[in-house]
């Protein structure tokens, strides 16, 4: 079936008797957990304030978020989920290989071509199901083809970022000011230009937006994405103003466009059953996991997870395990794709579980992370510094052990350690994932043990990190409440992109009022 022939499937309703004058946002997220989950949460928040939100994507997208969207529909929110089949033959993508965080690097460009081919079917569907006609396209920055979609529809387009303003500003500035000109060593320190405060990076850590990743045609895709970002009508970021005001303002000024901070968007689910199942079905029963935590002292458990993409090599699994065991602290450890290791590693993990029975809990697969982090027993988080994870830790008021693996994660580490003062680094200085030249970078058990003890232990430094983390959590929650900065930005978005108001945005610019 080709994308031109495939029929869109509307999965549930949620827009019955909707006000045709209200804003209608069409969300085009990227099907990768770190991008998809906050985009859908943002759509639900906008729907909470009266906007109609239509989320579009291939079956792999709808499968991951269907439960969350259906729950929102059942509560009366005006949100739709529309599925479009991919054209595997036309794009050269292997049949069924449509999960962005599982695709082999050799097929990544085919995946992006396949998703871009959805432009025509999406537009035809939106026109066929109007009114209400879309008033704004909200696109993950990884979907630059949505510039043509929005232009054809005659509506504004906003770029959605699941990355903090500090990270996107730093990446923007190293490219904008040619920071690496004349610097041959990818590990040579360079000061990020254009910032009042001095931050040192290397090309290996911050090569520029989507640069330095060894995937064929990636540079061409990066250029395409940059052109689309520069032509957007505004930016939505999953962060909150009080955490990084100077970097939000700096990015708005650098781009010359309005930046709406709307996070932490995960707070939409606070106290709801959907908190545990955002983005996927957990590999463990969430209630059982929380009962395990109920038996632990407040703030005594360290949670360990490296996200949905990166996977530790066998030696690193052993060193991490032994470091956690030696730390003496109870722990919950998410072991991604544990079945993919050889029998020796699987046997080692079984032996570890026997030794730490009652003190250590291993989760093999997707974890109900946000629910775990919000539990009173959890006192720290060993993280890869993906922005979703970092912001969820901030929301829960937790200090971090930072262990970046690739792309923006090194800058997110700087955000946690140097800007916010809530993190302790394990000292990784080069990418562990998507390496240009394959090399072994091993964090030893002694380093793991020391970092965990530093974050979870006593002393003025540890207490200071905890105080700062708790203060940030209070600000995060206040931002999402009535009168808060993120709440105000959500309301502003709904008002700006109402029918009639949105038409004026096309004629002018949404940068007014920065």
UniProtKB/TrEMBL annotation:
Pfam families: UDPGT
The EC number(s) this enzyme carries: 2.4.1.-
GO MF entry, a single one: UDP-glucosyltransferase activity
Keywords (A to Z) from UniProt: Glycosyltransferase, Transferase
InterPro entries: UDP_glucos_trans (IPR002213), UDP_glycos_trans_CS (IPR035595)
Record keyword Iron present: no
Gene3D superfamilies per record: Glycogen Phosphorylase B (3.40.50.2000)
Entries under PANTHER family matching the protein: GLYCOSYLTRANSFERASE
Family: Belongs to the UDP-glycosyltransferase family.
Name of this chain's protein: Glycosyltransferase
């Amino acid at each position: 079936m080709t994308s031109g022939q495939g029929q869109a499937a509307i999965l549930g309703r949620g827009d019955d008797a909707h006000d045709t004058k209200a804003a209608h946002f069409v969300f085009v997220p990227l099907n990768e957990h770190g991008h998809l989950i906050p985009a859908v949460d943002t759509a639900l928040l906008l729907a909470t304030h009266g906007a109609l939100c239509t989320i579009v994507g291939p079956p792999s997208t709808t499968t991951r978020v269907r439960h969350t969207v259906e729950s929102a529909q059942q509560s009366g929110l005006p949100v739709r989920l529309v599925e479009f089949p991919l054209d595997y033959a036309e794009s050269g993508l292997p049949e069924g290989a449509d999960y962005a965080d599982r695709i082999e690097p050799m097929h990544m460009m085919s995946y992006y071509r396949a998703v871009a081919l959805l432009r025509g079917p999406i537009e035809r569907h939106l026109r066929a199901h109007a009114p209400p006609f879309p008033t704004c396209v909200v696109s993950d920055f990884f979907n630059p083809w949505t510039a043509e979609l929005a232009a054809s529809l005659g509506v504004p387009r906003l770029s959605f970022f699941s990355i903090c303003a500090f990270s996107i500003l730093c990446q923007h500035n190293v490219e904008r000011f040619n920071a690496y000109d004349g610097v041959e060593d990818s590990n040579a320190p360079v000061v990020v230009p254009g910032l009042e405060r001095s931050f040192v990076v290397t090309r290996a850590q911050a090569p520029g937006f989507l640069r330095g990743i060894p995937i064929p045609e990636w540079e061409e895709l990066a250029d395409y994405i940059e052109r689309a970002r520069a032509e957007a009508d505004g930016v939505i970021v999953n962060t909150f103003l009080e955490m990084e005001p100077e970097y939000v303002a700096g990015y708005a000024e650098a781009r010359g466009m309005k930046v709406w901070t709307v996070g932490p968007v995960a707070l939409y689910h606070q106290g709801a059953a959907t908190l545990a199942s955002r983005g996927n079905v957990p590999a463990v029963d969430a209630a059982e996991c929380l009962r395990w935590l109920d038996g632990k002292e407040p703030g005594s458990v360290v949670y360990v997870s490296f996200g949905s993409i990166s996977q530790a090599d066998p030696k690193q699994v052993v060193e991490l395990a032994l470091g956690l065991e030696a730390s003496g602290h109870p722990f919950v450890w998410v072991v991604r794709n544990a079945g993919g290791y050889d029998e020796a590693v699987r046997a080692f993990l079984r032996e570890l579980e026997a030794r730490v029975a009652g003190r250590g809990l291993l989760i093999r697969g997707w974890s109900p992370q946000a629910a775990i982090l919000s539990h009173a027993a959890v006192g720290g988080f060993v993280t890869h510094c993906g922005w979703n994870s970092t912001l969820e830790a901030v929301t829960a008021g937790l200090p971090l052990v930072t262990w970046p693996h690739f792309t923006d994660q090194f800058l997110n580490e700087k955000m946690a350690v140097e800007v916010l003062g809530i993190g302790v680094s394990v000292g990784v200085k080069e990418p562990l994932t998507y390496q240009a030249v394959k090399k072994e970078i091993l964090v030893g058990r002694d380093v793991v043990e020391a970092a965990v003890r530093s974050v979870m232990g006593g002393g003025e430094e540890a207490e200071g990190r905890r105080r700062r983390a708790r203060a940030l959590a209070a600000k995060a929650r206040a931002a999402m409440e009535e009168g808060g900065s993120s709440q105000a930005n959500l309301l502003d978005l709904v008002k700006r992109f109402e029918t009639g108001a949105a038409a004026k945005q096309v004629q002018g610019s949404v940068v007014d009022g920065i």
